[in-house]
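PROTEIN DESIGN WORKSHEET
SECTION A - STRUCTURE
LENGTH: 395
TOKENS:
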């Protein structure tokens, strides 16, 4: 089986790269993924998937097999924008295949994973896959705006509840088994305006927010650390204020906090830390909420709390990943974690579905100019997903 899978992955090398090139040429920011989803749907149908459909939120769900157990392989199809175009050596939507790489925004984060799993689906169909597993290949939406929202919809509205899952977010072809969680917190301060010539008559909201900003800087230094996931962190990503005029004391200020949660930290503990800092102030602390209308016209949302998750290295899912990798490439993979956040925040963080990460590309290129992925990575990833499907239940 190893030989057949590797031969087919190599046979489809150009096919995989060309499929990715077509995806990259379509601009696909969050809430605007319709065209890239339709292109991926076309690719799944051409690869011979048993079923391909688009759900109410706009996620693409492809299926191979009809077994009693369910494996989901996920890739989100939205990307971030380009940033300053002058920082790029090539056009972000070029999709050019050059010097062994596919170039452009989304090649790493993370349409390369989708192109690879389309090829793995084609390999499984070529080999007549008939194990007692249903495999869903999901091209999901809105992840860059709200991690895991797409899987909240798939799980709660579509009723797809996998036994196991693989995220194809970039891992540099390593196996990842967790990452820190995160949350977005707003702290609002209510002051009292007065004429700028007599500030003592007012209560300046900017001063309150500035004091808290310095305390948050100190808080960051004393947050908890986990041996595997690393240290929790907090930073201020936005500072807004208002006043009746530029000749008046500010009566409102607001801090936007980016909080990264390591193992053992929770939404409640993170909020309690901020409440302690502002306890003597007229301040409001709240976890923000995301609610937007997808390209299908459906409004959907969730609280912007994305739980920390990890699974142990001796978990059967991780071991199946290691076994699949060693079988194909004759060496042991590195087992590690992501720095950033993924759809794993709902898949495992909320729903406790065991999940690992394995994807083409290096995460250091995610959201960066000159994003590109090696075609060799695409080939190896497509082989890995197919081999993993055959290794299920063999551990």
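SECTION B - SEQUENCE
RESIDUE ASSIGNMENT:
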């Amino acid at each position: 089986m190893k030989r057949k899978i590797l031969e087919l992955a190599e046979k489809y090398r150009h096919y995989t790269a060309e499929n990715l090139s077509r995806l990259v040429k379509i601009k696909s920011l969050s809430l605007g993924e319709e065209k890239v989803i339709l292109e991926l749907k076309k690719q799944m149908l051409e690869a011979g998937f048993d079923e391909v459909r688009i759900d109410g939120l706009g996620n693409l769900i492809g299926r191979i097999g009809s077994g009693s157990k369910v494996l989901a392989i996920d890739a989100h199809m939205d990307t971030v924008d380009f940033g300053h175009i002058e920082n790029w050596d090539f056009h972000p939507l070029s999709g050019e295949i050059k010097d062994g790489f596919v170039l452009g925004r989304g090649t790493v984060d993370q349409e390369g994973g989708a192109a690879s799993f389309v090829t793995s689906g084609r390999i499984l169909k070529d080999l007549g896959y008939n194990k007692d597993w249903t495999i869903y290949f999901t091209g999901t939406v809105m992840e860059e705006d709200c991690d895991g929202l797409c899987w909240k919809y798939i799980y709660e509205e579509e009723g797809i509840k996998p036994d196991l899952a693989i995220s194809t977010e970039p891992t540099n072809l390593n196996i990842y088994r967790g990452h820190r969680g995160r949350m977005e917190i707003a702290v609002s301060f209510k002051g009292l305006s007065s004429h700028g010539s007599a500030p003592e008559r007012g209560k300046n909201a900017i001063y309150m927010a500035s004091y808290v900003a310095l305390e948050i800087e100190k808080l960051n230094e004393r947050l908890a650390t986990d041996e595997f996931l690393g240290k929790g962190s907090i930073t201020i990503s936005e500072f807004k204020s208002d006043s009746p005029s530029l000749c008046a004391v500010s009566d409102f200020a607001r801090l936007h906090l980016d909080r990264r949660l390591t193992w053992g930290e929770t939404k409640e503990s993170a909020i309690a830390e901020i409440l302690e800092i502002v306890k003597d102030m007229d301040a409001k602390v709240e976890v923000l909420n995301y609610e937007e209308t997808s390209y299908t016209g459906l409004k959907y949302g969730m609280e912007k709390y994305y739980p920390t998750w990890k699974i142990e290295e001796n978990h059967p899912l991780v071991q199946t990943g290691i076994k699949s990798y060693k079988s194909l490439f004759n060496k042991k993979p590195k087992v590690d974690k992501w720095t950033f956040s993924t759809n794993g925040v709902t898949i495992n963080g909320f729903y406790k579905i065991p999940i690992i990460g394995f994807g083409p590309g290096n995460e250091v290129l995610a959201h960066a100019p000159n994003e590109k992925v090696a075609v060799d990575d695409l080939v190896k990833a497509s082989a890995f997903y197919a081999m993993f499907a055959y290794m299920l239940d063999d551990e």
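SECTION C - NOTES
The radius of gyration is 23 Å.
Residues 181-290 form a domain with the Alpha-Beta Plaits fold (CATH 3.30.70.360).
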